[in-house]
Amino acid sequence: MAGWCRRANGALALLSAGLIVAIVLLTLYEIVSRYGFNAPTTWTFPVSSYLLLYVIHTSTAYALQEGPHVQISVIVERERSHHYRSPRGRVRGRPTLGMAWT
Questions:
Q1: Dist CA 4 CA 63 (whole Å)
Q2: CA torsion, points 54, 60, 66, 69, in degrees to nearest 10?
Q3: pLDDT per residue over 45-92, tens digit each?
């Protein structure tokens, strides 16, 4: 069962790559039509936005499978070493950790 799931995730990753190429081409089309012909389009930005949503949804499974997704564990591990105890005994972190979460 895991084999077909890996193949499906790989196919969705390829679809995501194709959608990114489509976003780049749409952006190039918008730039040429806006600045080259002084005729901006109204549809390229919304279509690119929706395509980016599809890229995120179709590539998440592959990213979780392969492990290259962005993690903030480096920040968490770095900040754990800088914790201190307040006078009441509670552990408090530095302000940079709070900024990383917001």
A1: 16
A2: 110
A3: 999 999 999 999 988 888 888 876 666 565 555 555 555 445 554 545
Q: Which of 90, 89, 19 is nearest to 54 (CA)?
A: 19
The helix or strand, by DSSP H or E, that contains position 84, with its residue range, turns out to be strand 84-85
How far apart CA 22 and CA 44 sit, in angstroms, is 11
Q: Which two tokens stand for residue 98?
A: 């709070």
94 compared with 67, residue with greater pLDDT: 67
Alpha-carbon distances of 52 from 28, 38, 67, 76, 80, rounded to whole Å:
16, 26, 21, 29, 35
Average pLDDT estimate for 32-53: 94
Q: What is the DSSP code (8-state) at residue 81?
A: T
d(CA 55, CA 75) in angstroms, rounded, equals 27
